[in-house]
Design a protein that fits this description.
The protein is of the alpha+beta class. The protein has a single domain (about 20-120), classed as Bacteriocin As-48, Chain A. Helices cover about 40% and strands about 10% of the residues. The protein has helices at about 10, 30-45, 55-75, 75-85, and strands spanning about 30, 90, 100, 105-110, 120. It has a three-stranded antiparallel β-sheet with strand order 2-3-4, with no helix packed on it. A two-stranded parallel ribbon has the order 1-5. Helix 3 (about 55-75) packs antiparallel against helix 4. The radius of gyration is 17 Å and the shape is globular.
């Protein structure tokens, strides 16, 4: 007989399988070009708004985490999971909207970098 309360999920609590965020709607219909511009702007500025900024080696680590998060967000789910696991990223929920690095620094990703809105319209 085994212990009824034990499970493999309790052994590795930090390893959660990532999923795409729930469907969302932008405040107004946007084109794919506008969405891609929003994503590019976010990724260009993200390292300046997340993680800990204490020393050059920590800043380098933050940049690597942001790079890993971008790669995971742009990859399919299974490969994204591999990237997150390899980078030591701790995912708080079911998607990548809130993550932490191994030092406890928080990284927040908006849903528009993780999936498309329900009101995406075709470019002209």
């Amino acid at each position: 007989m085994g212990c009824g309360g034990s499970s493999l999920s309790n052994a590795d609590e930090n390893s959660k399988n990532i999923k795409k965020p729930k469907p969302w709607k932008h405040s107004e219909p946007i084109t794919r070009t506008q969405l891609m511009q929003m994503r590019d702007e976010f990724w260009d500025t993200a390292p300046y708004y997340g993680g800990q900024k204490v020393s050059d080696d920590i800043i380098s680590n933050i940049s690597e985490i942001w790079d890993a998060l971008r790669a995971a967000a742009e990859a399919d789910i299974k490969f994204g999971q591999t990237i997150v696991d390899s980078a030591g990223v701790i995912v708080q929920g079911a998607d990548l909207t809130i993550c932490y690095d191994e030092r406890g620094a928080k990284y927040e990703l908006p849903k528009y970098v993780l999936s498309e809105p329900t009101n995406l319209i075709k470019d002209n």
